[in-house]
Amino acid sequence: MQMPNLNHKMKKKLIVGITAEPSVDLLNGQLDYFIKKGYEVYLMAPEAPRVTKFCAEENVPLLAIKIERDISPWKDLKTLFQVIKVFRKVRPDIVNLGTPKVSLLGMMAAKITGVPFRIYTCRGFRFEHENGKKRSFLISLEKIIAKCSHKIICISNSVKKLGMDEGIFKDEKAFTIAKGSSNGINLSLFDPLATDKVKAEEARKEYNLEGCFVFGYVGRIVERKGIKELYHAFDAYYKENNKARLLMIGRPFWDQIRDTQLIEKFNHHPGIVMAGMKPQTDVPLYLSLMDVFVLPAWWEGFGNVLIQAAAMGIPVISTKATGCMDAVSDGFNGRLISPYSEAELVDMLRYFYEHQEEAKQMGRNGIEWAKNFRPEIIWKGIEDVYSSGK
């Protein structure tokens, strides 16, 4: 007599892993979604205030590990053994690991301990702006992660293409969910109709933006986001049009900026407002002050902030670089230029100022474009991946 299959009644154990505290922002709502779908979910991450708060909000246990973001052989070996111990204790059915270090050590540990279904969420490649031996070394690490994985979720089609072009993985193992993004965009938060108009007007006055045409940037202030090109292009255009302003939301990460004098130039430029870091919940308010959003990045995994701006009805300028090209519908809700090109960026700043009605239409189009990136679309895609491992 055939015995009934009772496995479907047992909750599958899922461990989601990240390397650094800020990455919890890339998982908002996702873990709670999978708890409600019947999974027993854990977060594996370093212990930190934002991580603890996130786990409480998502109602998931924290599997705390000590992990260095940069390469540190002795510490990395200790982390590897720590993760092996975690996996042997929890005995997960599925691991989903994203961000480079936890993906490398975690995927090796998952293979060693025989985790049945191993998923790598590929959020972009650090080797993109490297050359020579360092580039080759970083590519070899990505190949190890890919070899240990059963499935690879690339958060944009351009990331997938680059991974295949570099021989990191093959087409049958890697894919992108819907139009991209790892977690979608919260359209309830990024809603132009929900903006507090009084607070927006107060902020406009505080930063002396009244009567100005405002270009804006939100994100970490680091070289690879194209901040050098942004400064020089804006400075050149400001000399033509002193009604232009550049509103910068974010803070410098000094270890990722070679030209430290550049930040001094930002701070002392008469047309640039350095507003500093803002909580994620306040970002929509500051986006609402902008006429055009600008992200001239060298590369991204996926340009989430471009979708956030689009959702707020702001036209965007970005580049034809990995992860940026996927987040903009070129000519529909914004325009794409060549990465590293200050000349093209100057032309585009000028174009948007001189074609303001077209820019407003692109902003309206962006609200529709952003609907492709609702979190539920991405979560359902991830759920389908998890189910495929049965």
Question: What is the β-strand count?
Answer: 13
Strand content: 15-25%
Number of helices: 14
Number of domains: 2
Poorly predicted sequence stretches spanning 5 or more consecutive residues? 1-8
Q: Taking strands numbered 1, 2, ... along the chain, how are they ordered across the largest sheet?
A: 3-2-1-4-5-6-7
Q: Which range best describes the helical content: under 10%, 10-25%, 25-40%, 40-55%, 55-70% or over 70%? A: 40-55%
Provide the CATH topology of the largest domain.
Rossmann fold
SSE arrangement, N to C:
EHEHEHEHEHEHEHEHEHEHEHEEHHH
Largest sheet: 7 strands, parallel
| CATH class value of the largest domain | Alpha Beta
Our Rg estimate from Cα atoms comes to 22 Å
Please state the average pLDDT score: 95
Q: Structural class of the helices, strands and pairings?
A: alpha/beta
* Anisotropy-based shape: globular
According to CATH, the homologous superfamily of the largest domain is Glycogen Phosphorylase B
- Which architecture of the largest domain does the CATH hierarchy give at level 2? 3-Layer(aba) Sandwich
